[in-house]
Amino acid sequence: MTVPSTAGTSPASSAARIAPGVVTGENYRALVAACKAGGHALPAVNVTGTNTVNAVLEAAAAARSDVIIQLSNGGARFFAGEGFPDAAEARVLGAVSAARHVHMMAEHYGVCVVLHTDHANKALIPWVEGMIAHSEAEFQKTGRPLFSSHMLDLSEEPLEENLEECARVLRRMAPIGMSLEIELGVTGGEEDGIGSEDLDAADNSRLYTQPEDVARAYELLAPLGDFSVAASFGNVHGVYAPGNVKLRPEILEASQSLVAERFKLGHNPLNLVFHGGSGSDKSEITRAVGYGVFKMNIDTDTQFAFATGVGEFILKNGKAFQHQIDPETGAPYKKQYDPRKWLRLGERKMVERLQEAFADLASAGKSVAAK
């Protein structure tokens, strides 16, 4: 249960204290509110298996920060096993399997975890609805869903079609305490089959969300349930050469101001999401957080960190990945090619990179998890 904050204390000390583990419903909303009140955001880290899940949990515990664990459709499918015969079913079952692992382990790492799924375009709506069905069944048993939230990325569709479909899905999610992330405008680059790596192929004007579109989304969705907005301000997925990306965080401020004024709300009423956080300038990250961003996606940098840890070991111990026994000395290489050895090095590099993310987002030391 959450405990109301106490007036007159600092945001960090006044934040609700929440039982560690996966947060949903009221506790999810309390965590988001604590981030915005405390002037920090949480990294949303894409995972593909138990190694990356455990690395995220280890990193969050070390930083004493809460965290967001998320799966793309491809990451969920990979979690189920690339050999699974039905790719559509694998996306659902892989996500559910990952969710159950996170539920089992998160509370023991002592931090609060938002469990989320990443971009789902129109073709992937059945994936999202399949996961919601599992959350509905879980809610009937335990009173809480499996996931904290899901994302629908219908930014390629006309605005009204985007929002009407988001509203339809949110009506199903809200009664079981789930939040919906939507996308307005287009985040450049490609993320697991969604979008394009050709920045010139994107309509540049659509890389910058229009505040009027955000106001329309608030008007339609706010009465239905909890939602967040991935508003595009020039951000892209992946890492690109300097000069190719022009971030304009002031677009976030304009959207917040318009919604606050039009609907007579307080400061930064929208819960905003920053996609394409890998490789972003730290000053731009700070500005975005100041405009109400509570979540920043990071995938490319953590993938590279994991690969670096594994790659350095393989380059140093090349013979062990070609021979079980050294052909010249007869020495066994089992301790080198044991997957636990090199996978652990990948985890450590990922943990190390995430410490940087927690620092950039000012979330280190600010977990609201009850001790």
Describe, in plain words, how this protein is organized in 3D.
It catalyses: beta-D-fructose 1,6-bisphosphate = D-glyceraldehyde 3-phosphate + dihydroxyacetone phosphate. GO terms for molecular function: fructose-bisphosphate aldolase activity; zinc ion binding. It holds the Pfam family F_bP_aldolase. It is built from 13 helices and eleven strands. It has an eight-stranded parallel beta barrel, surrounded by nine helices. A two-stranded antiparallel ribbon has the order 7-8. The two termini are 13 Å apart. Helix content is 46%, strand content 13%. The protein has one domain (20-310, 349-360): Alpha-Beta Barrel (TIM Barrel). Helix 3 (50-63) packs across helix 13 and helix 4 (73-80) crosses helix 5. It has 371 residues and is α/β, with parallel strands linked by helices.
